[in-house]
Each structure stands twice: as C-alpha cells, then as structure tokens.
Amino acid sequence: MSTIKQERGAKILAKYKAIEIATGKTISLKRILKEAGYSLSTQKQGVRITKNQGFREELAKYETDFVPMMEKLMAKTLKALDEKDFNETTFRDARDLLDSLNKNIRLLKDLSTENLAMKAEIDLDNMTLEDAERIINEQLGKGK
Q: Which of 43, 61, 79 is the last residue before a domain boundary?
C-alpha cells in the first residue's frame, strides 16, 4: 500500500520524465520530492524513497504511458544514427539520449538501472552501430 506522498511523488516524477523526454531538461529528484511534500531530510534520501515498494507500485502505473513513448524515441534515434554521418558533438548528444532513455525505461519497468555484470570498458571509437544496438538490447533484456 502506498502513501499519499508516494502517490504524489510518482505522479510528479512521471510528469517530469515526460518533460525530460520532450525537452531534454532534467529535474532533480530532490525537487520532485519537495514538490510531493517530503521533508528536507527525506528529500536528501531520494534514491531510498524511489526504491520503496509503495513508490515503485505507484510509478508502475505510469509505465504504460511512458515506456512505449521512450522506446519509440530510442528506435528513432538509433535509426537516425544508422542513416546519417554525425559529427562528434551530435553523436555524443544522441549517445547521451540513448543512455538516458535506457535508464528511464529500466526504472519504469522496475529493472536494475546499473548492470554490475557490464562493468567492462567499451571502446566507443571502434564501436559499430550493430555493437551499440546489441548492448542496448542486452540492457533492455531483449536478448543477446
């Protein structure tokens, strides 16, 4: 069972995730918890709050809205990377977007956002698009 603050916090987090997807503007978890009515000391423990079962249950209610939207954006970004010759800055922005989408999809699906088994260094200079797609799919649990 979730509390009123958990319900409010999950709803606000989902709203800001939609804004982040649309604009790229990130809102801090501390700000989200403040807006939900959490005390200052609790705001400083944001990760602990979001890992709470009640909060996760509330956040799961928004999965159906945001995960498909993020997966479509991820596919569109991968397609654009495959079809265009990006300069280094644009490629870095696209890579950062893919990283953020991957993390947020995993968060909304209640999956780990840190894969301890994937701590090997990745040579981005010599990585092909197929390598990047394989890694992303593995991170999303879509196979190897």
A: 61
pLDDT class of 84 with cuts at 50, 70, 90: confident
Q: Tell whether 100 and 135 lie within a shared domain.
A: yes
What is the distance between the alpha carbons of residues 61 and 6, in angstroms, rounded to a whole number? 12
Q: Give the Cα separation of 94 and 98 in Å (integer).
A: 6
- How far, in whole angstroms, is CA 22 from its chain's centroid? 13
Domain count, the chain: 2
Domain of residue 4: give its range.
1-61
pLDDT in tens, 43-77: 888 888 888 899 888 888 877 777 787 788 888 88
